[in-house]
Amino acid sequence: MRVEIITIGDELLVGQTIDTNSAYMAQGLNSVGLEVHQITTVSDKKDHILEALAAAEQRVDVVLITGGLGPTKDDITKHTLCTYFDTTLEMNEEILGRIVAFFTSIGREMLEVNRQQAALPKACVPLENLRGTAAGMWFERNDTVFVSMPGVPHEMKGLMDNQVIPRLKERFNTREIAHLSIMTQGVGESYLAEMIADWADSLPAMGISLAYLPSAGTLKLRLSKYGENGNTGLMTELRQKAEELVKEIPTIAYGYNEESLEEVVGQLLTERGETLSTAESCTGGLIAKFITSVPGSSAYFEGSVVSYSNRIKHAFLDVSESDLHEHGAVSKEVVEQMALGVRTKMNTTWSIATSGIAGPTGGSEEKPVGTVWLAVAGPQGIVSRKFMMGNDRRGNIKRSALSALNMLRIEILKEPFVN
Amino acid sequence: MRVEIITIGDELLVGQTIDTNSAYMAQGLNSVGLEVHQITTVSDKKDHILEALAAAEQRVDVVLITGGLGPTKDDITKHTLCTYFDTTLEMNEEILGRIVAFFTSIGREMLEVNRQQAALPKACVPLENLRGTAAGMWFERNDTVFVSMPGVPHEMKGLMDNQVIPRLKERFNTREIAHLSIMTQGVGESYLAEMIADWADSLPAMGISLAYLPSAGTLKLRLSKYGENGNTGLMTELRQKAEELVKEIPTIAYGYNEESLEEVVGQLLTERGETLSTAESCTGGLIAKFITSVPGSSAYFEGSVVSYSNRIKHAFLDVSESDLHEHGAVSKEVVEQMALGVRTKMNTTWSIATSGIAGPTGGSEEKPVGTVWLAVAGPQGIVSRKFMMGNDRRGNIKRSALSALNMLRIEILKEPFVN
Q1: pTM for the full model?
Q2: How many CB pairs below 8 A link A and B?
Q3: Please, which pLDDT band fits residue B10 given cuts at 50, 70 and 90?
Q4: Residue B419 domain-assigned?
Q5: Are A185 and A218 in contact (CB under 8 A)?
Q6: Which residues of B touch A18 (CB under 8 A)?
Q7: Domain termination site, one of A171, A193, A210
Q8: A395 and A374, same structural domain?
Q9: Beta carbons within 8 Å of B349's beta carbon, 6+ residues apart
Q10: How far from A61 is each of A25, A57, A147, A172, B6, CA to CA, in Å?
Q11: With an 8 Å Cβ cutoff, are B39 and A12 in contact?
């Protein structure tokens, strides 16, 4: 089964927006064994969209369309689809009810343009959008499926995950395919490939393929295996190989699939009834932000002191002024006192502290940009470690935060715990 | 003059790589008045590339191709171009000399596959690649120009800037074009469209087009205008119309082009020599993270107390225990005490505080999920405001942080300041 993605929007053609939607959609489609044949990006003009739809219909079995479903007048996908499928708009009372409820829930007045978002082509099956007011639309003609989704990434992702992928899976008799990802932190791609070479060499004989998917600070190892329709044992095989690897590199492999370090740490703390605080300098609140992005984190997270200046490190965390003067803020002495200070003052089981030079300025010969000290304090005392990151401020901040969360995870697992 | 971009590579179709090249190329083309009509992404298969080339030749005057020029065997663009233009490869001694020199300069052994990179189609004009070994190729047929470049972003950029853009400018008598974006925060797309309807209605008569580009928490209004070659006044016209609007909605419009609120706030504080601290509950450190993502923010940002629990709100920020008990953490009383507390304790000119129910749990009938209180304290006292956000935790946290930064911006601008 072949798919074409059509992304609509002048903002893509003038280069103001980078198309990240297509990659997300392609990954989702691949996960159910559907192959993306082509991606076509066109303007907000009706004729152009019609031409792209007709060309795609010749080439593929499924056409996924994003963009052009907002309430303002530059959004014309819906009207164009009416022309293409020779149908008209009709007010959909169910969707209208959802839009009314959405505006009530956020306490804002609903306008006529929002009401019009519930007017949908008669020929389509509406797909519920839980994250916005523009519904998805599913059309079928001559064995080709067309799906239209909004271009706002967050809304598109919800529709893909909850509606489009499950329906495509059901509609087409796709091959079975299983994917399992092992999440790792702390080691780069080529170094990790060397570390796990023996294990990786054992995969092809089992029909398992391996892909490295790096992003700033973490590296995902994706295992895939295809099988005939009805073969339900694929995931068991992948799980077995994955567990083998996790046992081999427990400090690097921290979880599966899309699990984040903050989720893994949150789960450990919840199981153990333990608590956490952070004292952040170079990470500037990012660790707290990661931790609090997990629903329910208030059960184990007390808070953070983002001590960006030395004054605050001393006043809020009891870091010694003479150590700040003698060793500098980016030092073993200071980061350890930060961790101990916040743990004591917030009275938590664990604490994390960070201090480093994120860049682009502030480096010296002795401590170049990218020098970062991380510390974790817990019931048995404190550990700290120096890292040398790169020159990129944003990357340094993110990698520092993730490295600190992984350090915490390792320390928690060392600590005996009886439920 | 219309351009089509063809990007070649299986890695784009399986979603492992996000296509950032097209946006870069589009911006460059726009800057010389060339309009990108379509972007087409195809696989590394010869037939598919040939089909895309033929379709593009029907549609446009210029076809820019990236990808498939590396030395490894899955790169077949060069052979496909020979087929398409009915020509053969020929060793180009000048390019070969450059490749030899390149390998000498980096001290690596040159392989036969690298030598083969100097074999180019007879029908093309080679374009020098100063950043790698794959030359660019310029073809012309029946008034259509085809340019092939490597897909490595760094090499493509060098070729675009130094070769392709100057040659296209010379080859075509290009139109001028200008773009200017106005950044806004605090009002949704449809509501803003109503607010600024009169202003927006005045644009078409001036030949200016308007597009709404929303993302979580902010909304970008992009103005565009085309003009004859040599018309250098386009940007002045856009700037004038933009300033008109900014004067009309100063609390909503906060900046131009890709400016972020944290950059705008950082610039204001820097100019005034003022400082900032934050006390964050529901935003969990995100405001601090935004502020510290700006290089040089340590000059005005002292730090933050992320007070996720009530205990920390009392112990670190002096929030009254009886008010926490009586009004709850998500209340005007508590958020104002948080702002005043952190401002006093960190001794800053300004402070921001947040307290809300991000969800998905923790809501009640009186205070449903999405209820957020924000406060800003400064030299003249304190302001606070209640917001009703939606049901999505991540969205609520981000919109709370951006709304708080915009509240701060508005309060700073109210405050008289003499340099």
Answers
A1: 0.80
A2: 272
A3: confident
A4: no
A5: yes
A6: 18-20, 22-23
A7: A171
A8: yes
A9: B269, B272, B274, B275, B276, B378, B379
A10: 16, 7, 11, 10, 22
A11: yes
